[in-house]
């Protein structure tokens, strides 16, 4: 395992999300989830329109991404016995998870949220994540009653062999959020070949 911010997480973290169960058995296998059109570089600090001060730690309870119609509860995720990030139960397609041994969303550092792109029944919570646009907002409800509001900086897709662990999971000097699901190419024999990653930073709270 390697250090990610203030806590440890495995190098291989999201493989279990990536079987492509629905595409494997569905007649709609040609209807793969949307992917980012191109890699968008994260902006220089001077280009950022707005930042908000860090919030005190508080576990998240729900994630909402209005532009892609996501409104899902969050559960805590730990590490499996092999050291990879655990996953939400696959049978609940409208459920996401956050790495509960790491940074809480809104706190200074890098918070991690992950969820399935599909399950045996069809599209799941982050099926449309690759269609998200720079500048979109992500709201995270917190147990303290507040809502941390994040603005999307970039949406990127990486093949598994080229996944940039330090860029995605590395420590940040401000409150940042990563939202991760499966993506990239798809093969019936191996499932999804990579991951879609959304980079966002805290721009407000209420």
Automatic annotation (TrEMBL):
Entry annotated with the keyword Hydrolase: yes
Annotated spans, Disordered: 33-63
Gene3D superfamilies: Sortase
Compositional bias (Basic and acidic residues): 41-50
Keyword Coiled coil: no
Origin: domain of life: Bacteria
Record keywords, A-Z: Hydrolase
Protein name listed in UniProt: Class F sortase
Species for this entry: Streptomyces carpinensis
């Amino acid at each position: 395992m390697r250090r990610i911010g203030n806590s440890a997480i495995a190098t291989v973290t999201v493989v279990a999300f990536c079987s492509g169960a629905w595409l494997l058995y569905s007649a709609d296998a040609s209807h793969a989830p949307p992917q980012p059109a191109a890699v968008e570089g994260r902006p220089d600090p001077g280009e950022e329109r707005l930042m908000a001060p860090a919030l005190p730690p508080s576990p998240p309870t729900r994630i909402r991404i209005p532009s892609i119609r996501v409104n899902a509860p969050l559960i805590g995720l730990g590490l499996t016995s092999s050291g990879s990030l655990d996953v939400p139960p696959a049978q609940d397609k409208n459920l996401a998870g956050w790495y509960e041994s790491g940074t809480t969303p809104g706190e200074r550092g890098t918070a991690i949220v992950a969820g399935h792109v599909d399950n045996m029944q069809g599209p799941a919570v982050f099926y449309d994540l690759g269609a998200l646009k720079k500048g979109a907002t992500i709201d995270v409800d917190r147990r303290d009653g507040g809502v941390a509001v994040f603005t999307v900086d970039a949406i990127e897709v990486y093949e598994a062999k080229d996944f940039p662990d330090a860029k995605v999971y590395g420590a940040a000097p401000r409150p940042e959020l990563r939202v991760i699901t499966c993506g990239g190419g798809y093969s019936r024999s191996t499932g999804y070949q990579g991951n879609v990653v959304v980079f966002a930073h805290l721009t407000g709270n209420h």
